[in-house]
Amino acid sequence: MPTMRGDASETLTIRLLGELELQLGDTRLSPLESGRAESLLAYLLLHRDAPQARSKLAYVLWPESSEAQSRTNLRHLLHTLRRTLPDADRFLEITPRTMRWLPDERVRSDVATFEAALDRADDDGEAALRQAIDAYTGDLVEGHYDEWILDERERLRRRYLDALGRLASLLADRGAISEAILWAERLVAADPLCEAAHRLLMRLFDARGERARALRVYHACCETLERRLGTEPSTETRGVYEELVRSREQEPPAGAADARSFVGRIGERARLHEIWTASERGRAQLLVLTGDAGVGKTRLLEELRAWCERRGVATAEARSYPAEGALAYAPVVTWLRSAPLMARVRRLEDGQRADLARLLPELGRPASVALPTAEQRRRLFDVLAQTIAAPGPPLLLLADDAHWADADSLQLLHYLMRRRPGAQLLVAATARTGEFDEPHPLRELIVGLKEREQCVELELTSLSRHETRVLAERLEAAASAVPPRTRSSSAPRATRCSSSRRCAPAPRAATPSSAPACRRRSSRGWRGCRSPRESWRASPRPSGASSRSTWWRGRARRPRTSSWRRSTSCGDGGSSGNAGRMRTTSPTTASGRSPTSG
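User: That's the sequence. What structure does it adopt?
Assistant: Structure tokens below.
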């Protein structure tokens, strides 16, 4: 093979992770003639910090050959490298005793990029870990099984797996659960025998509310360990599984009646999940739910918020009120005072917080620099956009009754979407149909963002007949599960009976449990109402009364008072009696006779 001469200014790129490749500038070089040559090149690159003795290189590459034979083989390899590499003397330092790969800024190695990024991970965090993972395109010099390569390959692979786990944990800590799951799944696929990776994935699925998938990860871990190693999961892994099972058993049954459980809107909820997924991947959007009053717009947004919070999303909610008028930046102020955004406000510089102090007086004195109104507005919009779109978990902002929001807040949303289109942000608003027609500021915002493909408008209609019936059944079941309210008043209350006959009076001292039940007269006797005589006999008497008859006659001679009348009224009242006479409490039968008259 003829020696290739290249421009000294061109960069030599060497790929060692995966299959070995050489590229000079934009030209891909021919592969080396032998696997030993590739092994020698890889060894020199990985040990480039110091010269390597020829005797050591000969033993590493040919451990079973004699020293003389291995040295002869090494000379042939050096000849091959010099013929293949363009300007080999620019990269190799060869002496009678040593060999060394010279440091050169125009030489790039994927292994060097990988390890340098990992060394910066403590400072740069996610960015460095992502760069390292991207650089790792495969195991070291795939297809070679020299002893030294196996050790170095395992070392680099361990660092790669550690980088996957660290990145997944960092994303989970800042609330990006979905992205963390992607990296954790990649870690499990790369190392199926790593129980720590399975435990991490189980916890992430549980954090996103997918407990069934978390349990499936455990069972897959058990099957893999049994099939490959003939062993069981460790105590720590089983502990995570048992914790998931206990929490699942504590959940209410799926069929339990719950007035707050969501009914219907399957298509709308799926659409909302799609919109949020797009925003989570880096697309700032405005979602507007429209419909008549009471159709369920707010309830659907509450369901979206609960779903996002289970995925570790930061949320904030605001509402506009017609009775308060168009308060400037009212929903924006409410969002800023929420815990997720207030944490971002605290990270701002002093000058930026001074600009925000115009909206949040608790931040201190506002900026005293005299600026034109337009310039103050621009600076305020810049600070608000920087705060809302600051690095952190994906953000969901809710704006209920946005048709009553002030024009300044709506104009800020347009500015925010235009300046930060790649933010992990979704602003979900509700608006009543017919309340924001042209030239309403909300309509202008929707039109402006639709032109930029950053707005989705969904109209909600009424529930179907079946969904309405299911909702009514759940509400009825929830109401029947509530225990009846205990009456605190001791005053007796009148009780109406469906019988056409008059019922016996309920004694004043009777309680709901001891009061005589109302039974109706039938051909078989008293079934629905006690007879007047039975009611009289069942009524309690004072301990001082000599007999029940004496006590009953004494009750009839009591003075008529309003409370006494209330205690003796039942159904449609007592007998009319003669005009001018005092009405007594003795009950009458159908024939008008008193029970004491026999």
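The longest helix spans residues 147-173.
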